[in-house]
């Protein structure tokens, strides 16, 4: 059987993990390449994973390349991107991909690759890989005038009329189908796309487990404490927390109560947070920090079976359900009601997860001492 040629374009650890799961499940039918695409400012964050993938002898990808576009403004940025496009054009002409997978079709690199395929007469399938909550609730920023009109026309002016601003992530006309965890629950903006189920069993692949374990060992994490962790708390960006009156004080109250009952608790602040210990909880007995720069997706496979995962306005809950369906997961709704949080309520209810306010969390988690 002749293998299909395929590109996988990634820009975040989640994109990489989902791409690996899909590529490993299809390695007998694809000759695949992995491309790291992102702003240059994200280079350092993803450089660890890029080096790891290039060195991995059991990789499902025949080649791993980097196409980081420069950050900045003005004509210099445009000129640099056009040089990057020239490199991508040469790659596409040589490889002629029949499938192009991406976790974010707003990336210029993805749309440029698809445009080049069309010009060559290559019938490449654009395939959207589940990016997380945006798949199910949509991207609100895509509705703004600045996004729909201003940014759209600027990109068309500078780069070409092949550019299409998606109505939400995954919604551009370059996307033919999608591989998502919950095909029946996607945002209406994606309903017209052909859908395939992203299967939890793909993440149990032995080679995938091996590489994630290798990643975890490369970070400065107390493995013994992680193995005994009873609750993993993942937090949103500090700015999001501070937009919700009472969020920080209630989160601190919850952790204090659980600490008093002897819980072993891992706290993971958002990767974009530069402040140290925003909640001032790391001095509590039993509370320890997972470094903010360590992706949650890398930690998740190593959490013990009796560990609770607690999250709210993030993809944490969805990721846990997908990668570790047997773990107990809860959605917290701290502080006063928030429009930012409320947009996720319908989706959480579909998952069978009713958000819990502080008294309910205390009752569910803090009644008995964990041993």
Q: Care to describe what's here?
A:
- By secondary structure, the protein is of the alpha/beta class.
- It folds into two domains: 200 residues, Rossmann fold, CATH 3.40.50; 144 residues, Rossmann fold.
- 39% of the residues lie in helices and 17% in strands.
- It has 15 helices and twelve strands.
- The chain has a seven-stranded parallel beta sheet, with helices on both faces. The chain has a five-stranded parallel beta sheet with strand order 10-9-8-11-12, with helices on both faces.
- Strand 4, helix 4 and strand 5 form a beta-alpha-beta unit.
- Helix 3 packs across helix 4 and helix 10 packs parallel to helix 15.
- The N and C termini lie far apart (54 Å).
- 40% of the residues are buried.
In short:
The chain is α/β, with parallel strands linked by helices.
Biggest sheet descriptor:
7 strands, parallel
Number of domains: 2
Strand content: 15-25%
What would the principal axes of the Cα set say about the shape? globular
Distinctive features:
disordered C terminus; Rossmann fold; 15 helices; 371 residues; 5-stranded parallel β-sheet; 2 domains; alpha/beta
What's the helix and strand layout?
Layout (H helix, E strand, L loop, with lengths): L3 E7 L2 H13 L4 E10 L3 H13 L5 E9 L5 H21 L3 E4 L5 H13 L4 E5 L4 H4 L7 H15 L17 E4 L13 E4 L8 H13 L4 H5 L3 E4 L3 H5 L4 H14 L4 E4 L18 E4 L5 H4 L8 E4 L4 H8 L4 E4 L7 H4 L2 H6 L7 H8 L6
Parallel strand pairs: 1-2, 1-4, 2-3, 4-5, 5-6, 6-7, 8-9, 8-11, 9-10, 11-12
Helix pairs in contact: 3-4, 10-15
């Amino acid at each position: 059987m002749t293998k299909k040629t395929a590109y996988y374009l990634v820009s975040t650890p989640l994109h990489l993990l989902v791409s690996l799961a899909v590529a490993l499940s299809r390695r007998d039918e694809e000759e695949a390449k992995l491309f790291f695409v992102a702003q240059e400012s994200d280079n350092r964050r993803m450089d660890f994973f890029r080096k790891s993938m290039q060195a991995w002898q059991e990789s499902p990808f025949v080649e791993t390349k980097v196409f980081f576009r420069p950050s900045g403004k003005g004509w210099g940025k445009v000129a640099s991107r056009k040089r990057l496009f020239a490199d991508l054009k040469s790659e596409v002409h040589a490889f002629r991909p029949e499938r192009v997978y991406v976790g974010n079709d707003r990336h210029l690199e993805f749309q440029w690759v698809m445009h080049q395929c069309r010009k060559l007469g290559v019938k490449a399938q654009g395939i959207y890989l589940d990016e997380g909550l945006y798949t199910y609730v949509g991207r609100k920023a895509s509705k703004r005038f600045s996004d729909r009109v201003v940014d759209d026309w600027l990109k068309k002016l500078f780069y070409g009329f092949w550019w299409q601003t998606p109505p939400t992530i995954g919604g551009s006309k370059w996307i033919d189908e999608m591989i998502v965890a919950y095909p029946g629950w996607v945002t209406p903006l994606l309903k017209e796309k052909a859908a395939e189920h992203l299967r939890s069993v793909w993440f149990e692949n032995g080679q995938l487990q091996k590489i994630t374990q290798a990643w975890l060992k490369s970070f400065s994490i107390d493995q013994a404490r992680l193995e005994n962790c009873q609750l993993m708390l993942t937090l949103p960006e500090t700015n999001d927390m501070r937009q919700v009156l009472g969020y920080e004080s209630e989160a601190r109250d919850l952790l204090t109560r659980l600490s008093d009952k002897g819980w072993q608790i891992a706290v993971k602040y958002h990767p974009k947070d530069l402040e140290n210990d925003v909640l001032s909880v790391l001095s509590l007995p039993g509370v320890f920090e997972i470094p903010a720069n360590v992706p949650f997706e890398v930690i998740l496979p190593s959490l013990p079976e009796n560990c609770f995962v607690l999250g709210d306005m993030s993809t944490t809950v969805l990721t846990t359900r997908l990668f570790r369906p047997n773990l107990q997961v809860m959605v917290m709704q701290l502080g006063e009601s928030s429009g930012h949080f409320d947009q996720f309520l319908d989706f959480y209810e579909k998952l069978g997860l009713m958000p819990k306010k502080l008294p309910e969390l205390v009752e569910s988690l803090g009644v008995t001492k964990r041993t």
